[in-house]
UniProtKB/TrEMBL annotation:
Lineage of source species: unclassified sequences, metagenomes, ecological metagenomes
Provenance organism: freshwater metagenome
Full protein name: Unannotated protein
Record-annotated M23ase beta-sheet core domain positions: 30-129
Pfam family, one: Peptidase_M23
């Protein structure tokens, strides 16, 4: 008999620090989680590292949407959903594409890299579906994460998979870039 796989576990992505975040974002679905510089960013669920930008190449002169996040990480969760975090001050060396992560595993430290330079330290947090590399306008967020963050902060395992894949069916794998 093959054991049934366990339901995914979800963890609030900032560990050990006070946070605030809003239910809105400027022009696409995402959330900025404000906290102190150096706070721990942890894997919100188990999965595999998809993309990592370990070098901040952003400059205001080259305002390219693909690099606005500065130091960033994408995780493809075991639930099939992509979780994206950016503006880190440090990404740990173990965090490379293909690395298997466990829910709650320390991956990076909160910072102000990319276009967050000069702003309050925060993590830009986006939820979307997996795409080919370089489709940054999907990676940055396709559904609003706040209700999932609220649930995870309260210790509830609320999955965004149903909402993510409903949106994917509606808009297609690579919707038009809006805003950026």
């Amino acid at each position: 008999m093959v054991p049934a796989s366990a339901a995914p576990v979800y963890i609030f992505p900032i560990d050990g620090c006070k946070t605030t975040y809003s239910r809105a974002h400027h022009d696409y679905p995402a959330t900025d989680i404000l906290t102190k510089k150096g706070c721990h960013f942890v894997a919100p669920t188990s999965g595999v590292i998809d993309e990592v930008n370990a070098v901040d190449t952003y400059s205001w002169k080259n305002n390219d949407g693909a690099i606005r996040g500065g130091l960033s990480i994408s995780i493809i969760g075991d639930d099939g959903v992509r979780y994206y975090g950016s503006h880190f001050s440090k990404i740990y060396k173990k965090v490379v594409p293909g690395y298997q992560v466990a829910a709650g595993e320390l991956l990076a430290l909160v910072g102000t890299s990319g276009d967050a330079a000069g702003l309050a330290p925060h993590v830009h947090f986006g939820i979307s579906w997996p795409t080919k590399a370089g489709i940054w306008w999907v990676r940055r967020g396709e559904i609003y994460p706040w209700k999932y963050l609220d649930a995870w902060k309260a210790g509830k395992d609320l999955s965004p998979a149903k909402e993510v894949f409903a949106k994917l069916r509606k808009v297609g794998e690579v919707p038009k870039r809006n805003g950026y």
